[in-house]
Design goal:
Layout (H helix, E strand, L loop, with lengths): L2 H9 L1 H25 L2 H17 L3 H15 L3 H10 L16 H12 L12 H25 L2 H7 L7 H21 L21 H27 L27 H25 L4 H5 L11 E2 L2 E2 L5 H4 L17 E5 H7 L8 H14 L5 E5 L8 H9 L17 H4 L3 H17 L7 E4 L6
Parallel strand pairs: 3-4, 4-5
Antiparallel strand pairs: 1-2
Helix pairs in contact: 1-2, 2-3, 2-10, 3-4, 3-10, 6-7
């Protein structure tokens, strides 16, 4: 791997993901190429490069037996190794075509398919007489069928049968369409090999994966190599661990794996009550054998978190703010004026209130929804102030309790999420959206009779 690739891998998990996909697919194609071209050395080397992936992704059977297979292939007697490497007798060619060698077990399956009846060979092993007949007559039946095909099949049919299934017109059209679709997505959404942000995103929707998934992609290769080296040392070289010993699974979070569900409030309450029962049982036993003061006991913390201030480890929230308005005397308000010199808007409120129906991308939302809403204001000056999201604050803990929505990278050509309100639950989504809208407002050509001021972070 070049130095440029190493730097890109460290800076962008998205680049690392696609770069790893290309490398692993190339290894799989090398294994297939080794079979087709009778290249035994290439087969062993490519297969050994794939073994760390079996360990990292919890393919236990492949992880257990593939290292043994590779070790056996490297330890073959000289005569057998010579036959495999020079003559290529570790695979079989059923035809004289190039790039057509296949493994022996695959050839056996193809021969079995020829002599199987409509019901197949299921149940033959349970009937010894039928099984012996099938074993004796099977090879002869196969020979007669091949002899008949060679003599009576037309040349056109024979040549068409020799074609690979991917050489047909339908397969080629499908492949071309898939390549064009991928190219169109990259042109619209951006080249993943040029992204520098520290997030792992999908190409079509620009949805961002969880941080744990991005870390899995970053640590996947090293994790697999470490486990493979430890396995070879302990099982094959030192022989301190039996080959049948369980292999611990990593269970790393990936795209297809759903995130762990948080426990419900009822289950947490039951768990807390069980802990309290155990605590008071210990207190009761201690009070039977020694003279203790309950008041002094309860003066000290007996929980991992103070129940008066937190609930299951999270800070307790006050009651609804709307209820506090009942305690505040409402002053008499005069009639609002009909004209304004300046209007100040809370940008986050505007984003929550404006509809998103009829718009597809973030560019459409900024140009057809947000900016027109500012243009229709009657005042000559309009100020838009964005909210800020301070980490480890009371407001941030309130947002965390409400739950997080789908993380999606904000860009001009990115499609709007189907659930807008759920998208706005994520603080990072809103920060990127506010920055995007600020740039759009700054680049817009406003009329001479209107002045617009908008904040960008903590600056105006």
């Amino acid at each position: 791997m070049s130095t440029w690739q190493e730097v890109r891998n460290q800076r962008s998990p998205t680049f690392l993901f696609w770069n790893s996909i290309i490398e692993y697919e190339a290894l799989v194609l090398l294994v297939i190429r080794a079979h087709r071209q009778r290249n035994f050395t290439l087969y062993v080397e490519a297969l050994e490069e794939l073994i760390p992936l079996f360990f990292a992704l919890d393919h236990v059977n492949y992880a257990r037996w593939t290292p043994i297979h590779v070790r056996d292939m490297k330890s073959l007697p000289e005569s057998i190794a010579r036959e495999f490497q020079r003559e290529g007798h570790w695979v079989l060619s059923k035809t004289g075509n190039r790039f057509s060698a296949i493994p022996f077990d695959q050839a056996h399956e193809q021969e079995n398919k020829v002599i199987k009846s409509a019901g197949g060979a299921v149940g033959l092993t349970e009937n010894p007489v039928a099984f012996r007949r099938w074993m004796l007559s099977g090879p002869e039946t196969t020979r007669m069928l091949h002899q008949f095909e060679e003599q009576y099949l037309l040349e056109s049919e024979e040549s068409s049968d020799r074609l690979n299934h991917e050489m047909g017109l339908s397969a080629q059209k499908t492949f071309k369409q898939q390549v064009n679709n991928l190219v169109d997505v990259i042109r619209k959404m951006g080249n993943p090999f040029l992204d520098d942000f520290q997030e792992l995103v999908t190409l079509d929707s620009r949805d961002c994966m969880d941080y744990a998934v991005a870390q899995s992609v970053v640590n996947l290769e090293q994790l697999g190599k470490t486990q493979y080296q430890d396995y070879v040392k302990a099982v094959i070289k030192d022989r301190t661990i039996a080959i049948s010993s369980p292999i611990k699974k990593n269970k790393i979070p990936l795209y297809s794996k759903q995130p762990l569900r948080t426990k419900s409030k009822q289950s947490k309450t039951i768990k807390a009550l069980q802990n309290n029962v155990a605590l008071f049982a210990q207190l009761y036993i201690a009070m039977q054998s020694r003279d203790a003061d309950l008041g002094e006991f309860f003066c000290h913390e007996v929980q991992s978190f103070p129940p008066s201030l937190s609930e299951f480890g999270n800070l307790r929230l006050p009651s609804n703010k709307s209820e506090l308005l009942k305690c505040i005397a409402q002053p008499r308000q005069s009639e609002p004026p009909t004209q304004f010199d300046c209007k100040i808007f809370d940008g986050a409120v505007i984003v929550h209130c404006l509809p998103v129906t009829g718009v597809i991308t973030f560019d459409d939302y900024a140009e057809n929804v947000f900016i027109p809403h500012i243009c229709i204001q009657s005042s000559r000056r309009v100020d838009v102030v964005w909210d800020t999201y301070v980490r480890d604050s009371l407001k941030e803990s309130t947002r965390e309790k409400r739950g997080k929505g789908i993380r999606r990278k904000v860009a001009g050509g990115t499609k709007l999420p189907p659930n807008w309100m759920q998208f706005l639950r994520d603080s990072v989504n809103k920060e990127e959206l506010f920055a995007f809208l600020t740039n759009k407002v700054a680049e817009y050509n406003w009329p001479e009779n209107k002045t617009v001021y908008i904040t960008s972070g903590f600056t105006l």
